[in-house]
């Protein structure tokens, strides 16, 4: 689904930049040969900066994931890979990310030092209409002394609900994000960010999202989000 969404967006971009891809069943097959790009790094895989709590929750969801190659939907959860740019989800995306705004980086993946900024992994459960993010907030996300900046928390919520919504309805943008901060998050701690689909209404997707401590014992944030489906024209001003 995501490959298809990004694929259709890329088809428009490629056309604009004269690459003329031909879409074939959820993938892009460019008519010109693209130079090979190194496999992009999947930031959603564990690294040495991940805490015991982060690893414990990662293992919990990962153990309930689909086995690679199994029929889609046979497992409860799917781990979502994460790259420095969304383009990199699709074949040829590595090259496009070098052509279009080459300096651009996904906001949550722009701090290179492992553990310094957002460390996270997302899992989606299509049967339950849920998406879960396991986040570890690094020292460069400070707001009040020793605590996570509220904007950084909003970013976590936008990331999980935005990804969730993209999987449900394809390309979309945040129209409204309403956040109630209940208790501060300590820097370095692991939190769970859980998005649930409330309803769909035409182009609108309504979601609820909760941020809790890693073991679910403490509520940090409760929020509601509205995403609106958009066309490639709206994203790239074509
Ligand atoms: C990109 C390709 C896909 C990639 C997929 C990869 C997935 C995974 C990869 C990586 C994960 C990353 C995940 C991160 C996610 C981050 C997401 C963001 O942060 S997005 C940036 C912040 N958002 C903006 O900048 C929007 C700015 N606003 C706009 O552009 C427009 O206002 C927009 C598109 C939201 C709506 O504009 P209109 O012209 O299309 O629609 P109108 O006609 O205004 O509204 C349509 C309906 O929606 C209601 N509506 C619009 N805005 C509303 C609002 N704020 N609150 C309530 N209702 C609203 C209206 O009242 C109307 O309702 P009635 O049809 O009459 O019932």
UniProtKB/TrEMBL annotation:
It comes from Muraenolepis orangiensis. Residues 146-216 form the Thioesterase domain. It comes from the Eukaryota. CDD domains: PaaI_thioesterase. This is Acyl-coenzyme A thioesterase THEM4. Its main location: membrane. One of its GO terms (molecular function) is hydrolase activity. It is found in: Cell projection, Ruffle membrane; Cytoplasm; Mitochondrion inner membrane; Mitochondrion intermembrane space. It catalyses: (5Z,8Z,11Z,14Z)-eicosatetraenoyl-CoA + H2O = (5Z,8Z,11Z,14Z)-eicosatetraenoate + CoA + H(+); dodecanoyl-CoA + H2O = dodecanoate + CoA + H(+); (9Z)-octadecenoyl-CoA + H2O = (9Z)-octadecenoate + CoA + H(+); octanoyl-CoA + H2O = octanoate + CoA + H(+). Belongs to the THEM4/THEM5 thioesterase family. Keywords: Apoptosis, Cell membrane, Cell projection, Cytoplasm, Fatty acid metabolism, Hydrolase, Lipid metabolism, Membrane, Mitochondrion, Mitochondrion inner membrane, Transit peptide. One of its GO terms (biological process) is apoptotic process. It is a peripheral membrane protein. InterPro entries: HotDog_dom_sf, THEM4/THEM5_acyl-CoA_thioest, Thioestr_dom. One of its GO terms (cellular component) is mitochondrial inner membrane. Its EC number is 3.1.2.2.
